[in-house]
Amino acid sequence: MITLYQFPPAFGLPNASPFCLKLELYLRMAGLPYRNRYTLEMHKAPKGKLPWIDDDGTAVADSGLVIEYLKHKFGDPLDGPLDASQSAHALAIARLIEEHLYWTVLYDRWIAPQGWEMTRAGFFGTLPWPLRMIVPWVARRGIRAELHGHGMGRHAPEQIHALGIADVDALAILLGRQDYFLGARPTSIDAVATAFLANILMVPLETPIKAAAAGHANLVAYCQRMARQYFPADYSPR
Questions:
Q1: What share of the chain is helix, strand, coil (3-state, %, to 5)?
Q2: 103 with 152: CB under 8 angstroms?
Q3: Which residue did the predictor score with more confidence, 130 or 181?
Q4: Distance between CA atoms of 190 and 184, rounded to whole angstroms?
Q5: At how many degrees (to 10) do helices 18-30 and 188-201 cross?
Q6: What is the pLDDT of residues 194-223, one digit of tens each?
Q7: Where are the domains of the chain?
Q8: CATH 3.40.30.10 holds for 2-74
Q9: Are 196 and 203 within 8 A, CB to CB?
Q10: Distance from the CA of 11 to the CA of which of 38, 80, 91, 231 falls in 20 to 30 A?
């Protein structure tokens, strides 16, 4: 049995970490049985980050590498039929989302004052005293350093939002009138896209990037469609 280690649910989503949600969504889309283990103990993870899996004693970390491991071991029902051009297209979309859009969302969650209040309460509100005061400060300092190292954190807020809005606008064009990002059937890129778009559209935090995403009817309908299909009892569309 696959055991999925991830953060506890938050903000009305099965997981407020898009990488955790991506992996759980992939497991559901691929029809692989698993069980959840919710944790905040990242120091116990193989690479010090969540999510990771334990597959009957085999530990695999990093959501993307876990998915590749699962494809190799259990087959590839979602992406197996894709040709080289479709696979390259999916990779380009994933890189746009995970290596760029993600950092703009991270800024709004952890650095912008309104987002930080939500994040501090949602992620750390149940910690005992004095950890409730110490851990959030340490975590936020680490995120600020990561944003600065990436480069996104060196920009002004309006510049960060403009970059995120451009990404969202591009995703809306790429999806177009299709049901899924590569056409009429879901593939693993839809696990990526849904996890990140849900963490923008379905979280009670109003940001310029959320407003831009909500302005694209196809992105809203896409998230709702994926929610009904794979997490019908867990999503709270907003």
A1: 60, 10, 30
A2: yes
A3: 181
A4: 12
A5: 140
A6: 999 999 999 999 999 999 999 999 999 999
A7: 2-74, 84-230
A8: yes
A9: no
A10: 91
